[in-house]
Amino acid sequence: MQDFLTGIAFFLIIEGLVYALAPRFLVEMARLLPTVPERQLRIFGLGAVVLGVALVWFVRR
Predict the structure, then answer these.
(1) Can you give the pTM of this predicted structure?
(2) How crowded is the C-beta side of 32, counted as CA atoms within 13 Å?
(3) In the 3-class helix/strand/coil scheme, how is 15-58 assigned residue by residue?
C-alpha cells in the first residue's frame, strides 16, 4: 500500500509541475486533443502503460 500511495504522490507532483511550469502548453494540448484520432490516442496510452510497467519491473528487479 505504501508503494501505491508513493506512486500517487509522484503522479500528483508531476501533474502539479506541468500546471505550474507550462500552463500555456497544457491549454494548447487540451485544444489539440479533440483533433487527434482515437486510435492514435489509444496506441499512445497503451505504449505509456507498457513503458511504465517495464520501468517498474526494471527498477524493482
Answers:
(1) 0.71
(2) 7
(3) HHHHHHHCHHHHHHHHHHHHHCCHHHHHHHHHHHHHHHHHHHHH
